[in-house]
Amino acid sequence: MSTKTATPPAPAVQHEAPAPQRPTKKAHRAWDEVPRWQIYFPLGAYLLFTLIPFYWILLFALRKPGSTSLVPWPMTFEHFEKVWTQRSFGTYFENSVYVGIATLVMTTVVALAGGYALARFNFRIKRAFMLALLCSQFVPGALLLVPLFQIFAELQMINSLGSVIIAETVFQLPLSMILISGFIRNVPYSLEEAAWVDGCTRFTAFRVVVLPLLRPGLIAVGSFAFVHSWNHFLFALMFLSNQEKQTIPVGLNSLMSADSVDLGALAAGGIIAALPVVIVFAFIQKWLITGFSAGAVKG
Amino acid sequence: MAQAAAVAKKPAPPRRRRGSATPRRLPYLLIAPAGLLMLGFIAYPVLSVFYYSLQNYNPTKPWRNGYAGFENFVHAFTEDPQFWDTLVFSAKWVVVEVGLQLLFGLALALIVNQTFVGRSLGRALVFSPWAVSGVLTSAIWVLLYNSQTGITRYLADMGIGEYGTSWLSDTSTVFPAAVVADLWRGVPFFAILILADLQSVSKDLYEAAEVDGASRIRQFLHITLPHLKDAIILSTLLRAVWEFNNVDLLYTLTGGGPAGETTTLPLYIANTSVDAHNFGYASALTTVAFVILLFFSMIYLRLSKFGGDDK
């Protein structure tokens, strides 16, 4: 209580006190300092909210079936074995990896080509194309399930992973292309011109000069495409009715919608679903915020 | 921006004349894959939705298929109370979710923007639910909310609430329960975007404000908030559209229930087309959703000053 009432005037006092000795620097620091409890208390409270659900799923996945203990001890991996073999999460995992990697590659390559054109050329339909990109971000895949289903049925692609890969790629493209063209604009055109003068073709100049500089941005966009298609659920649910072809999120959903939910299996399945995402983010975290803020400036 | 564009434009014409180096067709070739994919799998489906919205189309009842005029729309607006319920719920869901996410996201961003011991770990942990999928979020909260071994049981042990309650199957608790579950993974979205923008506030401004003796709250109101204004408006708008469209979480967490209590318009559309196979009617509802989305995207384009300096 007493700290609460005492804190507001405190910085002002500190601001006055050291001023005579070190006119600017120290005064700033004292003034800048937010009282520690104002950081750690709300942050700690929010972290509880964030971390308890994570702990809960670990707890259910690792403790013995029927146990109500609040610590996962004695630890068991039987839920994982069960989900991986009996509930075919092994197959789902493989399918999700295919979909994720194919979506990553297609999105990055197609968006890179389009983004380069948008960043470096002026052509007649450029403005219309940009407008289409911005607008299509507002068209949700969830609302197009029926017509997309009909198209893939026409193409004989129902029950093939290709349908999901194409659908995921298409809905990733607009944002990816806008971001990538922003990254390319950040690379001075004169660098490329210098390479042409040295005798490079446009493509070689792009590959040797521009591409290495785009790495943080491409990693952000590519991992985003991977994670998004890994996590996404509706397309796989709609287009893949054959159980052999389904992906992890569909498998998780079927665990949840069973009549009596096996909570241990659900928790273990959830952790299997989360693992690749955790790994990807641990790997790319340092690029993520810089990558996105660089693109965001261009909008 | 302007500089980059100027640099980009000027050297282009002479290059083009040099012949094969930069053929006039090159930009078109480069955007062709993306353009074709988007034409085939976004534009064409959208048009076909408009077409089917004027048809009776139900693969399980082919004898009734045919041109229906505005029948589907009339039915939605005059005879289908559930349609209105889903509209109202969509609005409620979007406003509550986005409002709370913005509030908590802003607060979190301001906190983790300070310098303190353990900051990078704190950031990583606070942002972590962002990458969790809708289905996995549902799975986690099903575990937390289940009546036998969920968190409610332990709360009941401490004297809060009653034993055996399942928050997801009771009409009075399902809304807050779903809101909290979606907040859990939605707040980091705002926190990340706002934090990225916070880092571009010039330190000089704060120093000047300190010299003038402005309090931290005044600094926040007069420096930080105006700087963040654009980012906040645009991310709020994008998030509102996203929350409106996103059906993963509600579909798997509540299935729209109990008793249709948590059905948004897109979820209603999905159920109408997947379970009832009433594609014509679903297309009409989708058209209504598009009109709503169009309204928001116009605001977005207006605010983001589309192509303003990019002409």
Automatic annotation (TrEMBL), chain A:
Swiss-Prot/TrEMBL keywords: Cell membrane, Membrane, Transmembrane, Transmembrane helix, Transport
GO CC annotations on file: plasma membrane
A Pfam entry, by short name: BPD_transp_1
Start and end residues of each ABC transmembrane type-1 domain: 93-284
Subcellular location: Cell membrane
Entries under InterPro entries matching the protein: BP-dep_ABC_trans_perm (IPR050901), MetI-like (IPR000515), MetI-like_sf (IPR035906)
Superkingdom of origin: Bacteria
Residue ranges of the TM segments: 39-62, 97-119, 131-152, 164-184, 205-230, 263-284
GO process annotations (BP): transmembrane transport
Broad class of where this protein is predominantly found: membrane
Membrane topology note: Multi-pass membrane protein
Ranges where the record places region Disordered: 1-25
Similarity comment text for this entry: Belongs to the binding-protein-dependent transport system permease family.
Protein's recorded name: Carbohydrate ABC transporter permease
UniProtKB/TrEMBL annotation, chain B:
Domain of life: Bacteria
Compositional bias annotation for Low complexity: 1-10
One GO-annotated biological process of the protein: transmembrane transport
PROSITE patterns referenced in this protein's UniProt entry, alphabetically: ABC_TM1
Keywords: Cell membrane, Membrane, Transmembrane, Transmembrane helix, Transport
Region (Disordered): 1-20
ABC transmembrane type-1 domain mapped to chain residues: 87-300
Membrane among keywords: yes
InterPro entries: MetI-like, MetI-like_sf
Membrane topology recorded in Swiss-Prot or TrEMBL: Multi-pass membrane protein
Coiled-coil region(s): none
Any one cellular-component term (Gene Ontology): plasma membrane
Membrane-crossing residue ranges in chain numbering: 26-54, 93-112, 124-144, 279-301
CDD domains: TM_PBP2 (cd06261)
Localization (cell): Cell membrane
Gene3D superfamilies assigned: MetI-like
Family listed: Belongs to the binding-protein-dependent transport system permease family.
Protein's UniProt name: Sugar ABC transporter permease
Organism: Streptomyces sporangiiformans
